Amino acid sequence: MTTPVTQPIEAVADELFRAVKAQYPEIEEINRTVSPEDKEHIWIRVYAPMDDDAEIELRRFATELEADILEEYGYRISIMPRQSRPFQ
Asked: CATH for 9-82?
């Protein structure tokens, strides 16, 4: 029996961000961090200058991709949008 080869988590996170950015080109990555509640859950924080309805649609779109990643690779990665820019 062979063990399946999986992509490193950073490569999968890059793919997730690119897929969401392709659908929502206005988003910008702020940073990546680990969830304070779960050290194995990666958050991709993004600036999402959009109204609440558009953000809900972005979250729905991203959630489907995130579920696919969890099922395929076992990685918990989430897009975390915010409507305001963080302080520099």
From this structure: 3.30.300
